[in-house]
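User: We ran a pulldown and think these components assemble together. Before we commit to crystallization trials, I'd like a predicted model of the whole complex to look at. Sequences follow.
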Amino acid sequence: MDKFTSHTGTALPLRRSNVDTDQIIPAVYLKRVTRTGFEDGLFAAWRNDPEFVANKPEYQGVSVLVAGPDFGTGSSREHAVWALMDYGFKVVLSSRFADIFRGNSGKAGLLSVPVEQDVIEQLWALIEADPTTQVTVDLEAREVRTGDLVAPFEIDDYTRYRLLNGLDDIGITLGHDADIATYEGTRPSWKPLTQHA
Amino acid sequence: MGRTLAEKVWDEHVVRSTPGEPDLLYIDLHLIHEVTSPQAFDGLRLAGRKVRRPDLTLATEDHNVPTLDWDKPIADPVSKTQVDTLRKNAAEFGVRLHPLGDIEQGIVHVVGPQLGLTQPGMTIVCGDSHTSTHGAFGAIAFGIGTSEVEHVLATQTLMQAKPKTMAVTVNGSLPEGVTAKDMVLALIAHTGTGGGQGYIVEYRGQAIEELSMEGRMTVCNMSIEWGAKAGMIAPDETTFAYIEGKPEAPQGADWDAAVEHWKTLVTDADATYDAEIVLDASVMTPFVTWGTNPGQGVALGANVPSPSDFEDPSDKVACEKALEYMGLEAGQPMRSVKVDTVFVGSCTNGRIEDLRLAAEIIEGHQVAEGTRLLVVPGSVRVRLQAMEEGLDKVFIEAGAEWRGAGCSMCLGMNPDTLAPQERSASTSNRNFEGRQGKGGRTHLVSVPVAAATAIRGTLSSPADLVPATV
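Assistant: Here's a predicted model for the assembly, 667 residues in total across the polymer chains.
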């Protein structure tokens, strides 16, 4: 995973709440067995509409998504995170994220940033007034900044540490192999197995 | 101080706990399917890693598989590639797989419980958000993404911050004809799609205790639809009776030891939850969704809401957008909504009890002209059981389509989809835009409402039916 310290880019104002993972990427686009190439499926149904905000020329090349509350609800598909990243997004801002989506984004290296809804409203207004507005999301300082607007955000220390250092979870856990083996020695014999010797 | 059910099960699985870091949690059972696993196996291969515990891992094919012609090669080449990839990965890494055509094949959340692999006090994960289903047995069960699937394959553990706990206490008894599905749809309409976010929820109270295991699974299944990390129900005699004798259930002295432990898995009298919701089951009625998320629901006897009914500006906008997408008029009675397709199935309502209930209502009736009824059993075992009981004949004689097992129209990854603007009454779990097919319009309903709707062609409950002349 790449390290993430700070990102600055233009932003897409997505004035919708409850953007579920079926909207982010419909199930028919989940059939690839690779980890890349999901950008075509991003917001696939909405992108058919020429008036959809992401289709407008002024919002090409965006890398920060500013969305309404309850972003990423629904399915556990990590493809939703991959589709956003493949399209070019580095950061998603919303007042509330679904747990699984937020977990997945932290694993894959997409920063999902919770900020108050009034910050989202201010960002929407600024971006819509000037689509070239540069938005900075600073993970080290835990701040979103653009012009005079400075908004702090919360992220747990451990996820922040992993993202700042680009660490691989599996490598970290395998370092605790002895603890896992000790735990396995204490499991009761009646716990079910899927395969029998 | 006492502990909640969730805290007890959590504590039993902590491999390592360090301040400032998430807990390292041991996983008792890892379920796998074809859609969210290929990239995880690929990751293992690239890093030269093995599956740590193939004997705690089970794979089945469900999301993509056709429900017709399942004995022939899968026609959709992309679906076929995904299924073939799972078969190759299972063989290479030594994972037990129940492929299409196998007697144990079916939806992963139907297969686990019917094999007896889902037991109280376990930690169960799967790359599927409806893993919360297994919480009905008093397990901590939740959906994970593909990176976490790879993590569990490699280490049999997950790093997880301990969630808060919430009680949903449902007092009283459900009235006749009102089901677990109505209860959970009413709950989600009450909380919204984000109301459970950050919590492991324990459902309890008289109405929960009175539910069958199938009903409990329906409730826990939809925990994710109001954002909960997991949903669970304390195991009791209903739970033990369901598990006893299942193929992978403990036997003899192991059974006695297991039950003795399972009986300790209840919330202590002096334990406290971080939040509580109290509902009264006795006033509940058949409940359906009108919008494009599971929180947008009303009683079947009510009218389609209007944007002006909502105070929150984003709820107003969401209502407007949903009405437009769904092709509904504010104020229109829900019972006046005409339905093209009725889907009975899914990990929410595709179990034998669901099919029995549907058949009981449909027997002697005909599916309305211009309406199609699709009945898709949750697993091959459910299908065979239904056929043994003659339920298939009831469906076929009524004019329904009796299909093979899988996820099917719940998410439309296989050929079972809605056409644009086609309207369904569906016993599944999500009414998101395009969920059942691009442009498709979904109303989430209980099994009795689905059955009655199929007969009348408009959203209905069994109370609306003229008795059949059998």
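Helices of chain A lie at 21-24, 44-47, 79-87, 99-108, 117-129, 157-165, 169-174, 177-184. That may be worth checking against your pulldown data before setting up trials.

User: Thanks, that helps.
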